[in-house]
Amino acid sequence: METMTLENIYFIGQTIAAVAIVVSLIYVGFQVRQNTTATQTASAQAYVTADNEIVGLINASPNLADVLHQGANGLSALKGGDLIRFMAFHDLVFISFQSFHLQWKRGTLDKALWGTYKQAILDLLQQKGQQEWWTKRRHWFNSEFQDYVEQSVVEGRAKPMHPGAAEA
Fold this sequence. Notes:
The protein is mainly alpha-helical. Helix content is 77%, strand content 0%.
């Protein structure tokens, strides 16, 4: 029977250590994957919640719904406080869209979810009032978002936002 030399013991120890490192790296990889999935899910839910809050503003205020409907025909259809409400509402919506766009570009917003927001932008900007709003406010947004929105509108297929919506 052959006795183990110090060199053999050292080799076995190194092999066990290497296997342990590989196993621990695989475990860490699974943990990172789980964490990434959880983060993406939470992030998507946060976007949906933000969107629901915007829609909630319309549902909570029948006057806002009327203002948005009238304003879709053009800003000249609105006066005083109604014009301010229309402008402020779209400021809020498009600031959110710009944030969503930035997150999509960084890869933290799912492509399919971004597609929903992109279509909302297209549908909104096919209406005369929203086009006029964009002309007045586009300078508020970074140039990358401006270019993306304008290129998307040129290439996109918009649909009316709601029955009876004004189309450009």
